[in-house]
Write a structure and sequence with these properties.
It is built from 15 helices and 18 strands. It is an alpha/beta fold. Strands 7-17-18-16-15-8-9-10 form an eight-stranded mixed β-sheet, sandwiched between helices. A six-stranded mixed β-sheet has the order 3-4-2-1-5-6. Helix 2 links the parallel strand 1 and strand 2. The protein starts with 10 loop residues before the first helix and ends with a strand.
Amino acid sequence: MLSFITEKQSCWDRLKAEKRPIFIYGMGDGALKIMSVFRERDIAVSGIFASDDFVRGHSFEGYRVHKLSEIEEMVDDFVVVLAFAAGYQEIVDKIHAIAAKHPLYVPDVPVAGGGLFTYEYCIQNAEKIQLVYDSLADDYSRKVYANIINFKISGKIEYLSAVTSSKADIYHKIIKPTYSEVYVDLGAYNGDTIRELLEFTHGTYHSIYALEPDKKNFKKLAKFVDGMKHVYAYNAAAWCTDTSLPFSAKAGRQSAINASSDNFVAARSVDSILEKKYATIIKMDVEGFEREAIWGASQTISHYSPKLMVALYHRNEDIFEIPLLIKSLNPNYKLYIRHQLYIPAWETNLYATI
């Protein structure tokens, strides 16, 4: 069991054993999460550096923020820990260039929820992980699945670069959109994935339902779809039932349901919005609450078998719980996993088709 998992030592253990100075590349939430684990595991940080455009002689968490060139002048041999997400080719290329000169790790810290993804975590969930691996529809999905898990354990970026697919490849080979899609977009942001779909259908569709809970994002979404026929936009979170939920608005992609927030937002289920009508594609990227959104679409998924595009990277357990949940709701689905250009393993998604 789990013979495809070859990395057994976590990047945290490797960093703990490291004798060379460790420098964190980046600032913000990712760096704070990584530094918190460092403190728990007594891993020393020698300093912080940022891309040249972000270095202004300031400090982060008590460390002066340097340029990489400054670190290289001061220290001959050191380890780099990447602490931000990169989804553009230019930045990814820059990260690979740094990795060619210095040992580089990208620790996996969950976007939502707690805990760390380690080999021990995989052993604890071995049966479910193996079940997903065995149920995938093609060899490439199994390779992607194995590489993503090995990356999450080791923090080695070569696992990601070996299994990166283009959006065009995914749409043409798996989703295969038609000119009459009923598209449900959960976590619609500013309409970017609607725009993406329409590129492959030459602007044609049957109808579109879009949910976006963040008010500022929703304004951008509403502006984008203004004047488009048969498009229904909701300033609401995707959920398992119709209700209201505490919500933390950050005006970007990381706005999310947050139990400690005093701000509330409407929440809707897909089954309620569709009123027993069908959908042909459902996309879910809802910042760690994909399982609740799936339950809210369970009747649609069971009865109409829409093509599904679901984020697998927000919580540690998503990579096995989400595929198993979807398969339980509709055993006829063929399951595919693809990773698009991103470091760390964000934009790793499940695609389900009949």
